[in-house]
Amino acid sequence: MLKIKKRPLSLIEQEEKLLEFESLYYQLPKPEYIPDRLYHFINEDNPVAITEAIETIKQEGLKNAKNPRDITNFIDDKVQRPLGIYFWGEPVNQDIHIEININKLNLNKLYAFPHLIADSILQLNEDYSVPEEFWDKVREIAVAIPFEDYQGQFQAEYIYTANIPKKLIEIRKSN
Asked: SS3 of 161, please?
């Protein structure tokens, strides 16, 4: 397969991205960004693996990831966010998902992280040759904030840093 050489991310583009990332933390809060339910998706393509995962979750609850998947691990390498169980604040189109009432969780173990930063990291890595110095600057800016300090400044993905018992979990199927 022919490998296409990536264009270097210019200094101006780097500065623009860093400013964009930093500005997320200082936007006016939007109450509609603060969820009352969290959604977790089972990231499997194989129906048998999905069924097995559901059965395990029904028996054991959700476990904090000890070895995150490659994509999550790549992003975690570039930012400051804790290991944990990742959630969305709104449903995503997937047949089977897990829902949790946020008020049943220990909010001291819940963090918000700008979704735009996570997506941008993956896109930048795909499209550009990015110097390590840029990633070092991203790491200084891109910080997960405790949920209790989150006011809806940005659209977030949420990280829960403890196991979640099965009694708090609702497994749902989309219509």
From this structure: coil
pLDDT digits over 137-147, tens only? 999 999 999 99
Sheet containing strand 85-88, strands side by side: 145-146, 110-114, 156-160, 85-88, 37-41, 96-101, 170-173
Who contacts 83 (Cβ-Cβ below 8 Å, separation ≥6)? 64, 65, 66, 68, 76, 159, 161
| Residue 123 · residue 52 · CB < 8 Å | no
CA dist 19 → 62, 77, 134, 154, 175 (Å): 36, 20, 12, 14, 41
pTM: 0.89
Burial (0-12, 13-18, 19+ Cβ within 10 Å), 96:
middle
Would you report the helix, strand and coil content of the chain in percent, each value rounded to 5? 45, 20, 35
